[in-house]
Amino acid sequence: MGLPSKSKPLQLKHFMSSSKFKPLAMNLGRLTINLSILETHLPKCKNLKQFNQILSQMILTGFIRDTYAASRVLKFSTDSSLSDIDLSLRIFNHIENSNGFIWNTMMKAYIQRSCPQKTLSLYKLMLGKNGDRDNYTYPILVQACAMRASEFEGKQMHSHILKFGFDSDVYVQNTLINMYSVCDNMRDARNVFDEMPVLDSVAWNSILAGYVRVGDVKQAKCIYDQMPVRNTIASNSMIVLFGKRGCVTEARHLFDELPEKDMVSWSALISCFEQNEMYEEALDMFVKMVANGVMVDEVVVVSVLSACAHLSAVHTGKLIHGLVVKIGIESYVNLQNAFIHMYSSCGEIMVAEKLFNAAYNLDQISWNSMISGYLRCGLVEAAKTSFDSMPEKDVVSWSAMISGYAQHDRFSETLALFQEMQLCGIRPDETTLVSVISACTHLAALDLGQWIHAYIRKNSLKVNVFLGTTLINMYLKCGCVENALEVFEETAEKGVSTWNALILGLAMNGLVEKSLEMFAKMKTRGVTPNEITFMGVIGACRHMGLVDEGRRHFDSMMQEHKIEPNVKHYGCMVDLLGRAGMLKEAEDLIESMPMTPDVATWGALLGACKKHGDHDRGERIGRKLIELDPNHDGFHVLLSNICASKGDWDGVHEIRGIMMQHGVVKTPGCSMIEADGVVHEFLAGDKKHPRMKDIEVMLDEMAQKLKREGYAPDTNEVSFDIDEEEKETVLFRHSEKLAIAFGLIAISPPSPIRIIKNLRICNDCHMAAKFVSKAFGRDIVVRDKHRFHHFKQGSCSCNDYW
DNA sequence: TTAGGGTTAG
């Protein structure tokens, strides 16, 4: 920053190769240096020593005071690789009689070394000295502003240009167009362009490049069509723009029409296919490119490898690897990283690892690709080891590892790593937070989730589609409908997934009508529903037993939206019919399915049989199911429950035997509850909690109060052949009751008691929760495997239909 | 009397 670093004054000794003055190596002999000698000898300089000797001669003889001679020697210094920028600056500072050329040369030198801020500092110095600016000066300065992408500085420069009257210079105008384009200000770029009396090819190309940069297809096309001369670069840029904006047909057409296609034309089209998820086309095009003898470089190969990764085309990837080695470009870091990504995407993690270990020029992306590769292949531990040994971790590394934990259902570790990241002072970005919020959702860690929401607001992070959807989902899955609706309204960028989260979540919370309303609203807003939307919509109908409406939506999938119902949609319909007691219709629908029904579909019918007491149908289907899926614990349990409710204890024992035989273990009921930011977990019959004594006392109090209110335990739920009193004790140790008791102790009103259960809530716990909400005057929110139950004043939001 | 400035794609 600031002015170019102060250089030491130019003294003769700087240019002496030793303290002893030697005669010029270039045979200057005893000749006094003059212009002609300078001009013949400067270009012949082979090393810094020779250059220094000429320079020292000039100082010694005072010839450096000749402005023209000084400008030649400075120019040589800035252009030649023999000298460096510090020496150039020392020469520049030594020149007493400087002129515009000399200033321009020094300012240009900083541009060439990518130090535009030093160019601008020199300009300030020049202004102070009222230096000799000329029409060569401002193109350099405007370019410096463009390099800094600083519209503020650019505009200042523009006003100087007007003030000093350089605005009619075509070079100046062209750099202004470029500067405004780089700053994405196409309005001012266009103003300059429109006012140019004579447009040369640079002006056309610059304005086109601007429209391409901001992605304005309409204007770019307009300019391209009007261009008097179109070069390949212009055409290639248009292909790129079409690709970026999803106009694949136009890109392909333009490519076909090109009279001359170069390497960039081919790779622009290939990248267009790749970006628009047309991976086969990308590969085909690459094959044609090679067949046509077009040169291939590392940039195009990176695109093609990405296509291979998406297609899992490891064989093609290996062929390309061979080609890359043959043409000798394999050591490009980007290419190595693309190979690591391709191989790990195709499951060839060992190959990726070998490449990674063999590479000598690893960068941050290499490490991040390797970690993501391990995670993609499910090797979470290997990823963590690699992560721990990284020399430097950036936000991408942390996000990759955090999302890796989240995607492998290791939610506590997700949150722990997030905390560690913060301790390391790395600021999370939108991507990181999506994974963390998703972990909060699974763990029902609402406190942390809300903290993150506040963090997003405080740091004005952009709530993009993913983040918005994740937040809405979290609030709905934690039973906070109001908050979810608020985020939904605030989210500017709404995708189909955002609507889906809302439709599914509202229905889960028992707000079926609102959910269906949102579905209607979504369609009027022009958002096209997808198959997940219909899962939500039919699911909503299922929560309230809206059979006719559900059927209507199911039929509309094909008729209106051309979406073929999949096995899950059928399963959902079977569940809807079954729950409503239409068991025969449900079974008929299964028989009429165009695909093989999955176990979940039969399972839905089995559940319905249990609910509606159709024991015969239930037993028939249950036996079929445990054959189809002998490892599924839930079906065995349901079947055994059906036997139990018939009083068929032999059947119960038989099923138990089958379970033992297959090693099927019933998933224990588990409830989670968050108190003061800590998540507590309860298993059925659990006695391990540190506050178990208090909980026992509360359970007794609950039992007494509930009985007074008229609660009678529903012992039908217990499928053990034990007496009624014992059954009641078992019932009162269900995990959700333990959690409710704990909630009554640990969470002070009016905060609701929020519980998450891994299985579906049983009849008895549902009834008990209703009584507790009344007898203790507490709101209880239970999220079970399928939906929410908001208990308030003795009733539940599900209206006892679940 | 010399010398120097601008755009551009995958």
Automatic annotation (TrEMBL):
<dbReference type="GO" id="GO:0008270">
    <property type="term" value="F:zinc ion binding"/>
</dbReference>
<feature type="repeat" description="PPR">
    <location>
        <begin position="200"/>
        <end position="234"/>
    </location>
</feature>
<dbReference type="GO" id="GO:0003723">
    <property type="term" value="F:RNA binding"/>
</dbReference>
<dbReference type="InterPro" id="IPR046848">
    <property type="entry name" value="E_motif"/>
</dbReference>
<comment type="similarity">
    <text>Belongs to the PPR family. PCMP-H subfamily.</text>
</comment>
<feature type="repeat" description="PPR">
    <location>
        <begin position="262"/>
        <end position="296"/>
    </location>
</feature>
<dbReference type="Pfam" id="PF13041">
    <property type="entry name" value="PPR_2"/>
</dbReference>
<protein>
    <submittedName>
        <fullName>Putative tetratricopeptide-like helical domain, DYW domain-containing protein</fullName>
    </submittedName>
</protein>
<feature type="repeat" description="PPR">
    <location>
        <begin position="394"/>
        <end position="428"/>
    </location>
</feature>
<dbReference type="InterPro" id="IPR032867">
    <property type="entry name" value="DYW_dom"/>
</dbReference>
<dbReference type="GO" id="GO:0009451">
    <property type="term" value="P:RNA modification"/>
</dbReference>
<keyword id="KW-0677">Repeat</keyword>
<dbReference type="Pfam" id="PF14432">
    <property type="entry name" value="DYW_deaminase"/>
</dbReference>
<dbReference type="InterPro" id="IPR002885">
    <property type="entry name" value="PPR_rpt"/>
</dbReference>
<dbReference type="Pfam" id="PF01535">
    <property type="entry name" value="PPR"/>
</dbReference>
<dbReference type="InterPro" id="IPR046960">
    <property type="entry name" value="PPR_At4g14850-like_plant"/>
</dbReference>
<feature type="domain" description="DYW">
    <location>
        <begin position="710"/>
        <end position="802"/>
    </location>
</feature>
<feature type="repeat" description="PPR">
    <location>
        <begin position="363"/>
        <end position="393"/>
    </location>
</feature>
<dbReference type="InterPro" id="IPR011990">
    <property type="entry name" value="TPR-like_helical_dom_sf"/>
</dbReference>
<feature type="repeat" description="PPR">
    <location>
        <begin position="495"/>
        <end position="529"/>
    </location>
</feature>
<dbReference type="Pfam" id="PF20431">
    <property type="entry name" value="E_motif"/>
</dbReference>
